[in-house]
Amino acid sequence: MAQLNARDVPLLRTPGRTDLLQVLWCPSEHPPEHKPTTELFWRTAADVTHVLASPPKPTEAQYGYTPEPCVLAPEQVTEYPNFLELGEGLQQQLSDWSLWQAAGVEIDDRYEAAPQEFYMNELSEAPGWKVGGWAPWGLTDPIARFCINCGAAMNPLLTIASDECRDYRRGWVPHEDQAIAVFDNDPVSNPPGIQVSDANHLQLYVCPTCYTHTDLIQ
Question: Could you tell me the end-to-end alpha-carbon distance of the chain, in angstroms, rounded to an integer?
């Protein structure tokens, strides 16, 4: 599903001397939550001496769960929490058009009726596949995840997204890729071709103490 090298992804915190994360999943949905099962393998790149030229393809796979081969080009960005994670006072401020105007923020007039949508679309939780960052809440309210083994608070590890970018969030497309970002009259850009549980996202969480992981559909 994904292979991440610590030298390419500064936010990737690996256990011990490992520097490589391989994420595997079963390319089918499983009850009761109807999502793919995932496994994490933390390895040391120097110990991987036999590399397959072509990974084996699954004999059976549900539609949308076999990604198109892609080369990652990690880019570190600044993002802010999901609107649902903010306190009521801050939510009210972000919903006040006059405060945005007073701050001198350049916002398209289409956001005047609901300026909080500018925050949601352009500033909070970057879309697409990402390591770490803020969780893309929506199907559920924000809820902390705790390790079932040691009780430590778990951190977002990886977002496996059903889309890389949508037309109304095009501002997140890297400047150098704006000219090649193709939507073809489709409001969604999705180069890996992944569709998680009816076009949602699979959020992986990891324990910073014992590296147990869990996942959540959002």
Answer: 18
Contacts of 204 (CB under 8 A, 6+ apart): 23, 38, 40, 156, 157, 158, 159, 160, 213, 214, 215
Give me the percent of the chain exceeding a pLDDT of 90: 59
Checking if the pLDDT of 91 tops 60, the result is yes
Q: Is the peptide bond before 32 cis (omega within 30 degrees of 0)?
A: yes
Query: For position 170, what pLDDT does the model report?
Result: 74
What would the mean pLDDT of 22-38 be, rounded to a whole number?
A: 92
What amino acid is encoded at 2 in this protein?
A: A
Give the bridge partners for 24, in sequence order: 39
Q: Convert 30-66 to b/e letters by CB count within 10 Å (16 or more is b).
A: eeeeebbebeeebeeeeeeeeeeeeeeeeeeeeebbe
For 28, the 3-state DSSP assignment is: coil
Q: Which neighbouring-strand residues pair with 153?
A: 146
Asked whether residue 122 carries a pLDDT value surpassing 80, the answer given is: yes
Rounded to whole angstroms, how far apart are CA atoms 112 and 117? 9
* Distance from C-alpha of 141 to C-alpha of 47, rounded to nearest angstrom: 42
DSSP letter for 15, please.
Answer: S
Q: What is the spatial distance between Cα 66 and Cα 36, in angstroms, rounded to a whole number? A: 11
Whole-prediction pTM value? Answer: 0.88
Please check the confidence at residue 217 and state whether its pLDDT lies above 80. Answer: yes
